Structures are given as structure tokens and as C-alpha cells.
Amino acid sequence: MSETTSATGASYAAAGVDIEAGDRAVELMKTWVRKATRPEVVGGLGGFAGLFDASALKGYERPLLASATDGVGTKVDIARRMGVYDTIGHDLVGMVVDDLVVCGAEPLFMTDYICVGRVRPERVAAIVKGIAEGCVLAGCALVGGETAEHPGLLGEDEFDVAGAGTGVVEADRLLGAELVREGDAVIAMASSGLHSNGYSLVRHVLFDRAGWKLDREVPEFGRTLGEEMLEPTRIYSLDCLALARTAEVHAFSHITGGGLAANLARVIPDGLHARIDRSTWTPGAVFELVGRLGQVERLELEKTLNMGVGMVAVVPGQSVEVALAALADRGVDAWVAGEIVELGDRTEAVALTGAYAG
Asked: How many CB atoms neighbour CB 343 within 10 A?
């Protein structure tokens, strides 16, 4: 018996992967990637690896390289449903570079990974545009990335993004818990909103429980629900680096998943305790709304959302005025939210006291 074969053989395209669409996406993103560069970047887009001239680090006595990687979680679902793809790139950069700067490291370069169900060149280019713009805001270069098409695993309109970054800090200028002392002040820097954490809770409350739609006009926001939820993560890296050059800083803490208490605790040494006064600030309307509509207990909100604080600096008491002035000069809304005290008979590294203002 003779075998029969199909008139049309199998192909990558038939399996759902469109190489030509991927090539077009690369062409569309080149303009934006070129804008996110630094003098140390060698070569251009299209190589198998991004190149960075490490001889630029010769001026360091003992350079320490810092590395971080992150994504933006289920916020990508809001971008997909809104059909707005560039702001999600700002979020990705913020989540990565603001982890780097916590130890005092200057972000040098980033790479990204975009996974899609189907390559839509304009959409991919819009995501990369946002990443490139975020890198410019962070002072780092976008040296490469990868776009992967996963038909059958993701729906045609589904996607996810992730990124990795590298920074450098002089060893004797490394920041962290080892420098924190009793009497230090805790300076809070305002977030731009939800940033990129807690969206599983927020989506559950606003969509599943309250039944709200993304195009709903919300008076408390002065815009639609979707616009509020897509507000980009604030990128603090250059602000933090400028602050560390201007004033004595002992530690930074990036307030992401886990909230203020859990993240600040990571830079509080044994034997000390951070006492934070809630009355020093008023969380934005979105935090109150999620709590009210979902009947979410305050402690649950605080361990899930940033509650209006995106970055914290721990500075000596004598540096407070200089630090606040430096941040104000850069347009960063900042205030003294608490202090570092002896642990005493307490067991937790960070305690929030009082009620929020307003």
C-alpha cells in the first residue's frame, strides 16, 4: 500500500508563528530603541546579544554590578482590554530599575522579553516604545530583547512582558540595612497610583465584585477607571541617585508587592524598628475606592497595595531638610513619614500607627 501525503506540507506559519510579522515588529521598534541608549552601548539592534563597553567602569575603585528582573503582573490585562500598550513599558522599566537603585546602583542597561499569542507588529512596537521611553527616564539603555510568539498557549490578543536590568555601584557607596541607625528619618516619596502591584485584588474588587467597566467615568479620579488603572509606575531611579549625591542616605526601599511594611522591613537591621505615622499622608482615591467597594480590611490593603508611597529613603536626622529640598527640586512629592527607633519589646521590624490623614 502506498502512502499518501497532503498537498500542503506543515509549516511554521501553519502552526501559528508569523516570522514576517516578527520582522516587521523589529523594524517598527528600531526608532524607539535607538533613543534609549548610552555612550557605552556598542552596536545596534539585531545582534544575538546586546553589548556594553565595560571599560566605562575603569573609574570605579571597586565596582559592584547589580542585577534585577521583574514583570508587571496582571496589569497587562488592563492594557490589553484598553488597547493601550505603550504605558505598560514604563511600568516594566520602573519595576526593574527602581529595584536596582535601592542599593545605590546606577541603572546601565535593560533587556526585555515580550511573549504574545500572535505577533501584531504595531502592538509589539508600542510596547517597546514604552520600554524605550521608560529607559530614557531612568537614564539607562535598552540593549536588546526578545519577542516570542506562543500560539496555542496564549490567545491571539494575550501577551506578557518581563525585563532584566544591570546597574553599578561603588562598593564603598553601597546602601542598605548595614548603614541604618537609630534616629534616622524615614522619608516617603509619593506613588503615581497603583503602580504595578496588587492588580489581581483590584481587578477582583472592581470588576468581579462591583461590576465596574473600564470606560466608567469616576469623579474621584477625574477620568475613567481604565485611565486610572493604566497610570504608569513612577520611575524614581534618577531622583534617588540625585538624592544620594546631595544628601547622606543610608537606605532606599522600593514599595512593591507586600506593601510599605514588608518592603521597608528588608532594610531595617536587627535590633531596630521603623515607626511609620499614617497621619502624615492621604492615600489616593483609588486605594480608598478599592477598600470600600471590596470591604477590604486596612491591613489587607496595606500588605497588597503601596497606599500612595512608591519609594522610601532612610536618612540621618540632620539630612532631612537637605533631602526634602533635593526631592522638591526634582518635582518629587516627599515627606517625613516616620523614624527608626530601638526595637525594644516589639517583634515587628515596621509598624504603621495612627489613621491616614483626610
From this structure: 15
| Cα gap 202→316, rounded to integer Å | 36
Cell numbers at 312, concatenated:
522610601
Angle at 162 between CA 120 and CA 104, to 5 degrees: 140
Tens place of pLDDT for every residue, the chain, 358 residues? 344 444 555 444 545 555 565 566 566 556 766 777 788 888 766 667 888 889 989 999 999 999 999 999 999 999 999 999 999 999 999 999 999 999 999 999 999 999 998 888 888 889 999 999 999 999 999 998 888 889 888 888 999 999 999 999 999 999 999 999 999 999 999 999 999 999 999 999 999 999 999 999 999 999 999 999 999 999 999 999 999 999 999 999 999 999 999 999 999 999 999 999 999 999 999 999 999 999 999 999 999 999 999 999 999 999 999 999 999 999 999 999 999 999 877 788 999 999 999 7
* All residues at 6 or more sequence positions from 35 whose CB lies less than 8 Å from its CB, including other chains: 132, 133, 136
Under a CB-based contact definition with an 8 Å cutoff, are residues 118 and 148 in contact?
no
Q: Are the C-beta atoms of 350 and 302 separated by less than 8 Å?
A: no
251: which strand partners? 314
Total-model pTM = 0.90
Give whole-number Cα distances, 137 to 17, 90, 144, 192, 234, in Å.
34, 9, 17, 15, 10
Q: What is the DSSP letter of 197?
A: S
11 - beta bridge partners? none
In this structure, the number of other CB atoms found within 10 A of the CB of residue 219 comes to 7
Q: How far is CA 240 from CA 37, 121, 131, 249, in A?
A: 20, 35, 20, 9
Q: What is the DSSP string of 279-340?
A: GG----HHHHHHHHHHT--HHHHHTTS-TTEEEEEEE-GGGHHHHHHHHHHTT--EEEEEEE
Q: Tell me how far apart the alpha carbons of residues 65 and 166 are, in angstroms, rounded to a whole number.
A: 7
CB burial of 173-182 (b: ≥16 within 10 Å; e: otherwise) equals bebbbebbee
* CA-only gyration radius of the chain, Å: 23
